[in-house]
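Need residues for this backbone.
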């Protein structure tokens, strides 16, 4: 019976992340047609699109903190289902926006809701599985979850952008039915019984220099990945048309599809490789090296066909497929009383890093070419990610039954 409940918990975490990714990526896919339908010119679409993306990511930054604290105070399951409810309602409402201002408010609210899913799911799965097997569980969560982007592309390609938002909202509300019978973490229940252990103390991560150092390093590991997805792939139509990568028109939605298709296999490969090497850091180092080489290739290659560019998007996704492993590393660095806070906040701080990266890109774009601006931001992201990796200790097979 317990094994069935563990399987159900992994399934719910994976499907929750699936719907989360669907809704998270959907805006990037429908950015151009939705804004054009709202009456924006081609010149306005880039600037307003970045503004909406920044609001969504800003909402995720706030939501990551709120849902992380809630996860350590009230439980991992409360976050899994509270976040689903919030972003599902917001995305249903997104289907009926008539102005950019309405769109902005709802993307911000949706961002808050989207923030809770991955961290809570990874925390729950990490705590209920044996220490030498949890990498397999988090790999399942990531691989199933990331495939939500493929469905987002398919739905958006075959239906209107408004219908695509409705599909996401309905899927999320339907997922709430699976809550019955899901197992809460025993480690959380154990800490919950301790009257002397303070749970979800977010500010303690900043008061204690060691905790702050670990938190910062965990965040920086993921910056390079989100640069690839948030800058290179999301803005691929602008890059390809202006720097001669290909003379053919590139669809952002299709580039995102192939990137996330690669991410599915990359998340599988990184999770299994970390289990094989019995090391998170060695595996992460390999993927960061491969990702860096792919970023430089993006700016070096010229005169590709559209199909060749989509193949490059797949490669960029594959070598950036360490999202679940990076969140797992964050969860393994902190005690049970802060684990959900960190594991939920860290990926959303990384997503939030897209805000300063896009601002920096926008500033550099005005001073230099789009390729110089994009490559400069990319090098900055690469340096930060390697620094974060080298600053952390190995966490494979760490016993998670401790508090900070």
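Answer:
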């Amino acid at each position: 019976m317990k094994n069935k409940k563990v399987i159900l918990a992994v399934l719910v975490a994976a499907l929750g992340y699936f719907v989360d990714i669907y809704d998270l990526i959907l805006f990037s896919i429908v950015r151009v047609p939705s804004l054009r339908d709202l009456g924006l010119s081609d010149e306005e679409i880039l600037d307003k699109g970045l503004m909406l993306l920044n609001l969504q990511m800003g909402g995720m930054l706030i939501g990551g903190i709120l849902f992380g604290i809630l996860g350590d105070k009230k439980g991992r399951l409360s976050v899994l289902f509270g976040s689903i409810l919030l972003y599902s309602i917001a995305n249903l409402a997104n289907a009926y926006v008539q102005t950019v201002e309405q769109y902005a408010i709802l993307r911000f609210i949706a961002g808050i809701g989207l923030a809770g899913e991955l961290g809570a799911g990874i925390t729950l799965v990490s705590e209920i599985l044996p220490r030498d097997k949890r990498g397999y569980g988090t790999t399942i969560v990531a691989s199933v979850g990331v495939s939500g982007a493929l469905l987002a592309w398919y739905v958006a390609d075959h239906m209107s952008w408004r219908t695509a938002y409705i599909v996401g909202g309905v899927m999320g509300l339907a997922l709430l039915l699976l809550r019955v019978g899901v197992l809460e973490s025993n480690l959380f229940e154990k800490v919950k019984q301790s009257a002397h252990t303070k749970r979800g103390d977010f500010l303690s991560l900043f008061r204690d220099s060691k905790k702050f150092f670990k938190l910062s390093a965990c965040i920086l590991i993921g910056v390079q990945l989100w640069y690839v997805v948030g800058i290179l792939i999301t803005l691929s139509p602008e890059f390809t048309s202006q720097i001669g990568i290909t003379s053919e028109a590139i669809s952002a939605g299709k580039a995102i599809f192939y990137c996330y298709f690669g991410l599915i296999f990359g998340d599988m490969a990184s999770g299994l490789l970390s289990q094989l090497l019995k090391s998170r850091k060695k595996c992460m180092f390999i993927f960061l090296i491969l990702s860096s080489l792919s970023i430089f290739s993006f700016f070096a290659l010229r005169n590709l066909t559209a199909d060749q560019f989509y193949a490059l998007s797949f490669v960029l996704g594959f070598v950036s497929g360490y999202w679940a492993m990076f969140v797992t590393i964050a969860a393994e660095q902190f005690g049970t009383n802060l684990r959900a806070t960190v594991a939920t906040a860290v990926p959303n701080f990384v997503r939030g890093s897209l805000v300063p990266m896009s601002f920096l890109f926008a500033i550099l774009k005005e001073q230099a070419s789009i390729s110089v601006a994009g490559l400069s931001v990319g090098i900055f992201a690469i340096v930060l990610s390697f620094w974060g990796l080298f600053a952390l200790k190995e966490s494979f097979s760490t016993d998670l039954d401790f508090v900070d």
